[in-house]
């Protein structure tokens, strides 16, 4: 089993889906709380459109709500971004408060062994974790994949 991450910012629709196809992704794990992006530039990753397109290209879509960032934790990051005068799309790393809260509230109780067992049973071989930020270090998907790395898996960021 191989694990990947992908963001959408600064990608076109063709580039985004091209990366998935080029890397042979068979399972797409959406770990966003709100599965939509404002504006027309990234409309292709709004939930219904995204699921339709993934189905067309033979990729299984999974919404992993347990790994989505709750509003109160997202507010911590938004505050840090404001204090640092950074737009979400310009962020290069996560705030310490965000990391601590996400690790404690989301990752600590999450059963990664059971999650991976479910993926194995479903026949998943090449799994990607998706959220919107371009850089994984600026997104909670890096925290998720850090935990998967601890189980001995390698992670590739697309």
Please outline the helices and strands:
Blueprint lengths: L1 E5 L6 H10 L4 E4 L16 H10 L3 E4 L7 H13 L12 H12 L4 H10 L4 E5 L9 H11 L4 E3 L1
Parallel strand pairs: 1-4, 1-5, 2-3, 2-4
Describe this structure in words.
β2, α2 and β3 (60-63) form a beta-alpha-beta unit. It is built from six helices and five strands; from the N terminus they run βαβαβαααβαβ. Helix content is 42%, strand content 13%. The protein is globular, with a radius of gyration of 15 Å. It has helices at 13-22, 47-56, 71-83, 96-107, 112-121, 140-150; strands at residues 2-6, 27-30, 60-63, 126-130, 155-157. With 158 residues, the protein is an alpha/beta fold.
Keywords for this entry:
single chain, 158 residues, alpha/beta, Cobalt-precorrin-4 Transmethylase, domain 1, five-stranded parallel sheet, 5 strands, globular
Q: What's the quick description here?
A:
The chain has 158 residues and is α/β, with parallel strands linked by helices. The protein is built from six helices and five strands; from the N terminus they run E-H-E-H-E-H-H-H-E-H-E.
- Content-based structural category: alpha/beta
Overall helicity: 40-55%
What topology, given as strand order, has the largest sheet? 3-2-4-1-5
Please, what is the oligomeric state? Answer: single chain
The biggest sheet, with number of strands, parallel, antiparallel or mixed sense and barrel status, is:
5 strands, parallel
**CA-CA gap between termini:** 16 Å
CATH topology: Cobalt-precorrin-4 Transmethylase, domain 1
Arithmetic mean of pLDDT? 92
Order of helices and strands: EHEHEHHHEHE
Ranges where pLDDT stays below 50 over 5 or more residues in a row are: none
Class in CATH?
Alpha Beta
Shape: globular
């Amino acid at each position: 089993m191989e694990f990947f991450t992908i963001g959408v910012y600064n990608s076109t629709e063709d580039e985004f889906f091209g990366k998935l196809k080029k890397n042979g992704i068979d399972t797409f794990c959406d770990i966003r709380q709100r599965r939509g992006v404002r504006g027309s530039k990234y409309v292709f990753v709004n939930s219904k459109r995204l699921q339709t397109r993934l189905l067309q290209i033979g990729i299984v879509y999974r919404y992993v709500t347990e790994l989505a960032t709750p509003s109160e934790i997202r507010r911590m990051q938004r505050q840090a971004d404001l204090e640092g005068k950074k737009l979400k799309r310009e962020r290069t790393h996560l705030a310490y408060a965000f990391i601590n809260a996400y690790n404690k509230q989301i990752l600590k109780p999450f059963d990664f062994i059971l999650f991976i067992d479910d993926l194995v049973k479903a026949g998943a071989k090449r799994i990607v974790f998706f959220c919107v930020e371009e850089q994984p270090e600026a997104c909670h998907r890096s925290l998720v994949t850090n935990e998967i790395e601890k189980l001995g898996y390698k992670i590739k960021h697309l």
